[in-house]
Write a structure and sequence with these properties.
Layout (H helix, E strand, L loop, with lengths): L4 E2 L3 E5 L14 E10 L2 E8 L9 E7 L2 E3 L4 E3 L4 H10 L3 E7 L5 E8 L1
């Protein structure tokens, strides 16, 4: 986690996810990751290059230079909350609630302390 400042939108926390560390396809491009619930979090079940026919939740990501991003790596918070969230993230104490649309596009709904 990092607590940088965007001059136009304020403080933010950079978030990293286990599902970003997938052994994704080598080629850059869009991937669709089937998710499986394990306790209070979701983990990668299977990675696809096209949207899969499945009953599992699917999140759409982008592979660039071997890293997978989902568009949910930045969370803007107020001046006091951002450093607190950063400290919690360093100890693994954050949970990020994400909403997925029908195409797997993700957006952060809420960031909570575990």
């Amino acid at each position: 986690p990092v607590d940088p400042l965007d001059p136009f939108r304020g403080r933010y926390v950079e978030l990293r996810y286990e599902i970003s560390l997938l052994s994704a396809p080598a080629a850059d491009g869009t991937v669709y990751v089937e998710l499986e619930e394990q306790g209070d979090r979701w983990v990668a079940y299977r990675v696809h290059t096209a949207y899969p026919d499945t009953d599992r939740p699917v999140i759409r990501g982008r592979v660039e230079q071997g890293a997978v991003t989902y568009g949910i790596e930045t969370y803007f918070a107020d001046e006091d909350e951002a450093p607190r969230l950063e400290r919690e993230a360093q100890t693994g104490g954050l949970l990020v609630d994400v909403v997925l649309d029908d195409d797997g596009q993700a957006r952060i709904d809420e960031v909570r302390v575990r």
